[in-house]
Amino acid sequence: xxxxxxxxxxxxxxxxxxxxxxxxxxxxxxxxxxxxxxxxxxxxxxxxxxxxxxxxxxxxxxxxxxxxxxxxxxxxxxxxxxxxxxxxxxxxxxxxxxxxxxxxxxxxxxxxxxxxxxxxxxxxxxxxxxxxxxxxxxxxxxxxxxxxxxxxxxxxxxxxxxxxxxxxxxxxxxxxxxxxxxxxxxxx
Length: 188
Prior knowledge:
Layout: H1 11-28, E1 34-35, E2 41-44, H2 53-57, E3 62-63, E4 83-89, E5 99-102, E6 108-118, E7 123-128, E8 135-140, E9 148-159, E10 161-166, E11 175-187
Parallel strand pairs: 3-4
Antiparallel strand pairs: 1-11, 2-5, 4-11, 5-10, 6-9, 6-11, 7-8, 7-10
């Protein structure tokens, strides 16, 4: 029990108790900032994933399940682009290949995206704002190196889903790969 009336506690302790009370009161109702894409549903469109003339040449390429894109596990930088990733040969058909990560029923406020992608290609992440209905996009332009690299970009998104594709106006060799997608934010 705190006896303030008789001043039995020094001012520093009272001040510390007051600060801790304020912190506790503010964090009890706070929504945690986390990877809101963790283990969320991943879907692809009808584009040609994992099939191309390159697949015959790269017979040892390991195909990954779409769900691994949101498992929060990263390969080391420079990991081979087509081993354990979701990859596609863009010119294998007339469809713009797209991967969509659904965040759930609630809209999420996202401030940062992290992707691990093939380093010699540019990508685009699109979303529809849950309040305005307007479409937005962010460019993902990795630093060129060998294999996969991690790219983090700031965003201001309020959405239920993100769609990833190659950037039609950016760099690319028609062979695209992604191994991880995370969206840091809160869902209410």
